[in-house]
Amino acid sequence: MIKTPYLLFLGDAPDALAAKVAQGIKDWRPENAVGQFRMDGCKADLGLPDMTLAEARAAGAQTLVVGVANRGGVISKAWKKVLVAALEEGFDLASGLHNLLRDEPDLVAVAAACGRELHDVRVPEVDYPIAGGVRRSGKRVLAVGTDCSVGKMYTALAMDAEMRERGMKSSFRATGQTGILITGGGVPLDAVVADFMAGSIEWLTPDNDPDHWDVIEGQGSLFHASYSGVTLALIHGGQPDALILSHEPTRAHMRGLPGHSLPSLEALRDVALTLARVVNPACQVVGISVNTQHMSEEEALAYLAETEARMGLPAVDPFRQGAGRLVDALAAI
Amino acid sequence: MIKTPYLLFLGDAPDALAAKVAQGIKDWRPENAVGQFRMDGCKADLGLPDMTLAEARAAGAQTLVVGVANRGGVISKAWKKVLVAALEEGFDLASGLHNLLRDEPDLVAVAAACGRELHDVRVPEVDYPIAGGVRRSGKRVLAVGTDCSVGKMYTALAMDAEMRERGMKSSFRATGQTGILITGGGVPLDAVVADFMAGSIEWLTPDNDPDHWDVIEGQGSLFHASYSGVTLALIHGGQPDALILSHEPTRAHMRGLPGHSLPSLEALRDVALTLARVVNPACQVVGISVNTQHMSEEEALAYLAETEARMGLPAVDPFRQGAGRLVDALAAI
Description:
Two copies of one chain form a homodimer.
Chain A: E1 6-11, H1 20-28, E2 33-38, H2 53-58, E3 63-66, H3 77-89, E4 92-95, H4 105-114, E5 118-120, E6 139-145, H5 152-165, E7 169-173, H6 177-183, H7 197-204, E8 212-216, H8 228-238, E9 242-247, H9 265-279, E10 284-290, H10 297-311, E11 315-316, H11 318-321, H12 324-331
Parallel strand pairs in A: 1-2, 1-3, 3-4, 4-5, 6-8, 6-9, 7-8, 9-10, 10-11
Helix pairs in contact in A: 1-6, 3-4, 7-8, 8-9
């Protein structure tokens, strides 16, 4: 686990999008975000207090989180100065960058000298077991998509937030870099060795109270040629009681795969449910989450109404409408 | 690639089963097996000439293959003496043991001093790409099972052998340790990092002649909670034109998963075909391979006849009957 709360390092982000990891932390776990650290030329602003390292330590921050993408896959000298100073100031470091903190000899040496930890959240830090397929207590919900990057993480975070607001027992279970940084823990599933994928998800979602929901972050798509195996491991390791179908209606082809068309929601429902019932015969599809960001409000509402009528399931865009109706559907099973 | 031909190291195998990797090499690639090396107390015998290291080198052997399971996960001192001597004699070493040759400092040092290679076939030696989903030329066939360890590798090797005997263009594509040792190359799929699984299979089965068949070794099962993700990556990376359904009728539950029952052949056919057509809409199920080793001849033939009639597909046990009818079915598409 990464120690919270965080100081969010925005570096020299060229725009707000480059700092989307930091934005996610601030949006979904504001209690984890003590302040932001911006360098000269930073064009991102989360609206958090700008703090020096010392100020953030005094305010309780434990970890400096690299909440920004770097350019060219290199940790620049300017960043290095801040990261080294942070270690010396008493911060752990956490990052989801492709180039790893642990591959920087100076950071490794300073961290060792200061007794601080480096967390590269792309790299598994646990020896996961092979999945045993044994049913666990507690309930689990998973969003499965017609494609990658259709809003599965957003849907899961919105459902988790709604459930906690209602006083339901809920844990968001992160399976990717951003989710891990937001919550401080999880499984970087795309970096897990094949044989241990499903086992890592069993590890992530252990026995729990009968009325507790694990809201498992989805990955990939059963219909995506590059990542479908990851998705199936998530279904079979997660043993979901409930599935949410996720979709982005304007996409012309599968992400990164020109010529590969998206499946219908019906096709996704049928194959996902068939596979989920292998490990949990009671699994149900309870709702549909549609990412309508590229549609007008009018188009979006029409699409949602048509989808809801056709599929016989609540269909909502959690960003526009909140996740309330998806949580209602969960609460009903 | 591992240099062939081999001297097969049987060590102090307590019985024939412990040497099943060596047996597989001798059965399927006899031209790769120059001889066998047995230590005192070895209870396995492949019927190959017993050779000293020097004799095997003189006969052209390039690699000493550890074709036997070791006891307790430790490479014993007695084995070590032979392995070190083999390196000094000019052999490369290849092994599928859990404990790696590369983790033995003495073997690493001697190999470096002698300019020899250590091949641990459980460990990927290639940086595989992420799958691109682009169709390749040539044809591909994959066996998918109702469970793990139902005879998929045997089926693939038997089909490959039959096709080559008929003068058809065929390559067995190994995806597991034994298969890699048999042929000298392949992908240790269960050890590949999640994001690169499907890409590793694309790498393994590149563009080829239009009438060439890649016979891809299957792994796991879409219905096996521990390994299903590996199987789906194999389907989506392999883009099979033809699927063979593999089954072992007497199994009481999924291998290693008490309480998990096996799916029907119909259920396997439907879900495997749905998923395979995501990347190759022309994919067909062409035959059924049944492992009848725990049935009498009479029971086996009755089961095969019933299955064939029910499924409308040729159903054979390649061990009892050869793979001829499966190859006929391939040749017909």
